Amino acid sequence: MLQDRVKLIVTGDDFGYCPRRNQGIVECFLAGAVSNVSLLVNGSAATDAAQLARRHNIPIGLHANLSEGSPVCEVLKKNSSLLNEDGFFHGKMGFRMALAKGLLKMSEVKQELMAQLDLFRELTGHIPHHMDGHQHVHVLPEVRHVFAQVLEEYGIKYTRVPIEPGLHSCDWIEPPLMDFYLGVEQDSFNTVNVFTRHGIRWPDIYIGLSTMGKNMSINNIQSAINTVLTAFTAKKSPSADAKPFSHQDEQSRTVTIELMVHPGYPSIPPVGGCGEGPDDFSQSWERLHELQTLMNPELQSYYKTRNIELCAFKDL
To answer: What are this entry's molecular-function GO terms (predicted)?
Structure first.
């Protein structure tokens, strides 16, 4: 049996969050540890991030943000269903609660997504190669339809669908976090048909929930990749009914994986964030831990041994 050819997109999320995050992500890219980045255009260091991406030729997409900080659409900054009483987005869980209560106007979601895309183009000079959602908001009910419409209208082909094979058996994930991840997974399953109808594609396999922050280790990344490749070889991936990238014929097969990562140097308040300062996760040691793990030569040699080629969405 022929060994599958594996293309791995290692996406550094939250590019533009703060100068120290930008520095860490760029170091990872230059070391060959990250191959793709996702930009927060409402991040405090977004302009700097876009300049760094241009300088170092870093493949860049949009990390659409509806949950943290301030909107970029001028009209929505004063009076909008997307904002809490303090004038900021509702937050990771607050956004989900407001959505469940029917308090969010999807017309405003569309307005903000389009404003972020326009700002992305202004900052980088091109439309994003891919677009996903900060804190996975893009797969939520109602939002998924608007998100898909916007991608189709702008001609953006690629996104992320966070369904991670083997997630249920990751007993190191703390119960409250696992509950959130299982919610993301269910939302993602319910999003597949919507994205497919709009001609949107995503990698065959997603990894990143089980390996986030303190849960990232060389062993966990290797195990996750080995597990998903074994499962993929045995049966087609969750996204294979939709629009996978894998090209299969009698000669060979290419399997595409996205590994979502959050490397960087910890934010130091008050610098950073998306309008209301840096959050706890960005200030924690976990960001640096991810950076050091991803840059470990042992991981690089594992990729070579497994015939894994790092690439970006624009290479697919």
So the answer is: deacetylase activity; hydrolase activity; metal ion binding
Strands 247-248 and 253-261: antiparallel
Round to whole Å and give the CA distance between 219 and 170: 13
Which CATH code, of 3.20.20.370, 3.40.50.2000, 3.20.170.30, 3.90.580.10, is assigned to 6-234+255-315?
A: 3.20.20.370
Structure tokens at 145: 């339809």
- 287: Cβ–Cβ under 8 A, 6 or more apart, which residues? 21, 24, 213, 262, 263, 264, 265, 266, 267, 281
Average pLDDT, the chain: 93
Which of the residues are catalytic? 13
Q: What pLDDT, in 10s, does the model give residues 183-234?
A: 999 999 999 999 999 999 999 999 999 999 999 999 999 999 999 888 887 7
pTM, entire model? 0.94
Closest CA to 167 of 134, 211, 135: 211
